[in-house]
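ingest -> validate -> predict -> emit
validate: passed (alphabet ok, no gaps, 260 aa)
predict: started
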Amino acid sequence: MFQPHSVLWQYLWVAPNLLLAVLASILWKRGLHKQFRGFYIYAWFQAVQWAVLYPMDLIPSVSAVDYLRIYWFSVLLESIILFVLISEIFADVFGSYAALAHVGRLLIRWGGAFLLITATIFAARAPIDNRTWLVSTSQIMQEAMYIVVSGLIVLLFVSGAYFRLAWNPRVFGIALGLGITGCVHLATWAIRANFGAVRKSNLLDIANLATSHVVVLMWYYYLLVPQKVATKSVVALPENSLALWNRELERLLQQRPAHQ
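emit:
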């Protein structure tokens, strides 16, 4: 039941990606793709990634090296798209502080660019048909991606709660789903690394696939079901350090063109 290419395995790989394609189409039809451009691109990428990798996995004539090469490249693209998506989430959460949102978005995107450059350098220095290298680097890149993504999501939730920032319910749902996916993947990798659960490796893969399925259904709820709009408190909150940082950043950003 939990073996690769079992009925359950096939379903959990196929269903979430098809659901993401349908969700992206609904977002386009409702005009929400403009508001959530990063997530819209991410949803279509996941669907296209599956449409390429799934047949390659089933066709006997496709070699393992060819499959791993495409998989490695797809992980790299996924990392870049995720950094862009999280930068948009960051900008939305800190939307009331324009300077902080601008700087944070740039830092996150530059982090994604650094990841791309580093991966390209390693790829250029390695033999293209090295199966072991493709497997190890794909795993390392994916682990690094989920570590950074999970860390950024936790930072957003903690800072949002600490500074009492108002979340858009749809943005909250997107961020929550990404955080859950990242944490579950990291947990399964930790189990493999510390307990050497080779026999239960298939079960851990099923856990990751099932988590993706649950997260996609959760995104349907947050993005398509009308959410209650939170009313802002009429009591003015005291100025916090976040406002001070934002003001100082605005001053620095305004001064920079004057010195050029």
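The chain has one domain: 7-225+240-248.
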